Automatic annotation (TrEMBL):
Keywords: Acetoin biosynthesis, Decarboxylase, Lyase
Source organism of this protein record: Leuconostoc litchii
EC category name: lyase
Gene: budA
Cross-referenced InterPro entries: Acetolactate_a_deCO2ase
Protein name as catalogued: Alpha-acetolactate decarboxylase
Amino acid sequence: MATIYQHGTLELIMSGLYDGTTTFSSLLQYGSTGIGTMNQLDGEVTILNNRIFQTNTDGRTHEITNLDLTTPFTSIHDQSKLYYFLQEKFLDFNSLNQLSQNKQNWHNLPASIQIKGDFSKLKVRVAPKQKKPYPPFIEVTRNQPEFEYKNVSGTLVGDFGPELYSGIMANGWHLHFLSDNYLIGGHVLDFSVHEMIGRVDFFEELNITLPIHNEDFKNHQADVLKLRDAIDLAEK
């Protein structure tokens, strides 16, 4: 059965639960490709071909070799037998969203995307490392560094979260980037890619593990009424 494995939920991140609660070594047994963040929300994580990369707030990206480091939120998967092949002359956020809307059989399925191509425009952000008491994520995004690049080759990796799973996954596309030379990365805010190839994989199962031994999680009370608006603001 095709499965996206996810540790933690987006709601926990939005609420400021940034302590790492599982290791990257434990995550790699569930897949080879994914996205996430670090303990204390220290940058952006992109997983590609079983290798884990961290983008820091100075814009630099490096490979994580200490797999005992921890994360509060990461999703990971292998390719699914159910997928849609992408080969487009041009793609950006608007056309990707339009493609999703045109494929009505997508709208309730968790999905992943992987696109390789030449990006004429790329805008990314990187979440800074936080100290306790942790602020809500919407406050973190107000002070996050953003970086813009032109004419960079690389791979776009991410997930599609249906409305059905709001609060568990990000609604819509949640994308990260990793350049071919592994030096550029981050959470994608905007992109334009030409002559790309890729695939959208669909999953029958969404496997969520929770940080049941973390005291902040045990005492956490979600504010679901404010959650959707906060996610929309944080993802833009």
